[in-house]
Amino acid sequence: MHQVPLEFIPGLGPKTLSRLQSMFHSEMAVIHKVPKDFLKKVVHEKIADQILAIRDGHLTVEIGGGGKYGKIK
To answer: Which helix (H) or strand (E) holds 61?
Structure first.
């Protein structure tokens, strides 16, 4: 199972990531379980959609290598 760290999502900064983790207890819960309606209470709809795209495997990720991390397109 591929997992993309939430910090890789464009527009999701450290403060928002911290709020998500505080509200939903862990990054894994956010990535795998939290419904969109709950996500939208903390983040903009666009970011909620990107989190769901990660969950469903529909987000395009540029593969990293040679000392570089991959990134979301």
So the answer is: strand 61-62
Answer yes or no: are the C-beta atoms of 23 and 39 closer than 8 Å: no
Distance CA 1, CA 48 (A): 20
DSSP the chain: -----GGGSTT--HHHHHHHHHHHSSHHHHHHT--HHHHTTTS-HHHHHHHHHHHHT-S-EE--BTTB--EE-
pTM of the predicted structure, to 2 decimals: 0.75
Model confidence over 15-49: pLDDT tens digits?
999 999 999 999 999 989 999 999 999 999 999 99
